[in-house]
Specification:
Helix content is about 25%, strand content about 25%. It is α+β, with helices and mostly antiparallel strands and about 325 residues long.
């Protein structure tokens, strides 16, 4: 391979630079975080049991042992959007605006303050995903919600401000331009080939085996051929499912098994890096459109965008996805 090459992602149609001339080896990204001792319960934490009055009322919960909740959802106290805002669009000359409509919830993943979610028992971790689906469906039922995004920020550099394990889910009354462009590309690919681009990608990754991290429980975990961040990883159901909310109970349990494994591999193999993950799914009014196929995009915060990325919109990846996948495959997890 030359010093660098441009690669295009089949699903998003985005181009990335794989800069092998200054490539780092996968183990070069391991960073040992300073150990911070946290208590199992923090009386000042709004997400700890007993502090429910510090957050908006509970909108959904899954019970745990001793009658308390295991997973809890509530409106985000510092919401980026509001369900009472208008969706009417306004024109001021050339400019357009609309009210900041949307729903924004927090998913508190565990009653325990100091245990990362991936260290929870598998059954407890699976309950987090069941909560995602429930709150996704609740947000999507609002007639003005056009797009629902479940996501998790882990660590300060990923935008996480509270240590207690939690995720978020936002439903908004528009489809952002860059997502609209991606959906149009997916539709164009389906119209031209009669097949789903994500299904095609899954088939090729399984055939080549170079970038596969895990292939089990009905899901493929892989490093995309073209991606912009070191150790960026996708998780996709091998069954064609346009919308996340149509994932079955058994499939959610399978997803829990592979997502938990992946997070543990990052934790033990790379020294617990900060990360974001987001669930990419179809817009709410295209829930059954066959050109869509939901997936999770996980992005460890191991590099920063600089002038080239900001100027071109193309990210420079200083690692090879093939080497990153091989590294993660070999990470042994404690029994």
């Amino acid at each position: 391979m030359d010093q660098s090459e441009f690669r295009q992602n089949l699903v998003t149609k985005e181009w990335y630079v794989i800069a092998t001339g200054r490539a780092k080896r996968p183990h070069d990204f391991r960073r040992e975080k300073p150990k911070v001792e946290l208590p199992p319960h923090d009386p000042k934490c709004p997400f700890c049991p007993g502090n429910e009055n510090q957050t908006p009322p509970t909108s959904f919960e899954i019970p745990g042992p001793s009658g308390r909740w295991q997973v809890r959802a509530c409106a985000n106290k510092f919401s980026a959007v509001s369900p009472s805002a208008s969706t009417q669009r306004h024109a001021e000359g050339l400019y357009r605006s609309m009210g900041g409509f949307g729903v924004h919830e927090v998913i508190v993943e565990s009653p325990v303050h100091n245990v990362p979610s991936c260290e929870l028992p598998l059954d407890d971790f699976a309950k987090i995903l069941f909560a995602y689906r429930h709150r996704y469906l609740s947000a999507a039922e609002h007639p003005d919600v056009e797009l629902v995004i479940p996501f998790k920020n882990y660590g300060e550099s990923a935008g996480c401000s509270l240590a207690h394990p939690h995720s978020q889910i936002i439903g908004v009354g528009l489809v952002p331009t860059h997502i609209r462009q991606r959906t149009e590309e997916l539709r164009r690919y389906y119209d031209e080939t009669g097949t789903c681009a994500v299904c095609t990608m899954i088939e090729q990754e399984i055939e080549e085996r170079q970038r596969v991290v895990l292939d089990e429980a009905g899901f493929l975990v892989f490093a995309p051929y073209a991606c912009g961040m070191p150790f960026e990883t996708w998780i996709a159901p091998k069954r064609h499912i346009p919308s996340f909310c149509d994932t079955t109970d058994d499939e959610l349990r399978g997803l829990a098994a592979v997502l938990r494994q992946l997070l543990l591999k990052l934790r033990h193999g790379l020294g617990d890096p900060d990360f974001n993950y987001v669930i990419r799914s179809s817009p709410t009014d295209e829930r059954t459109a066959q050109c869509f196929h939901w997936y999770i995009k996980l992005m460890p915060r191991l590099a920063k965008a600089a002038g080239f990325e900001l100027g071109t919109g193309m990210y420079v990846n200083t690692t090879l996805p093939e080497e990153n996948a091989a590294f993660l495959r070999e990470v042994a997890l404690p029994s």
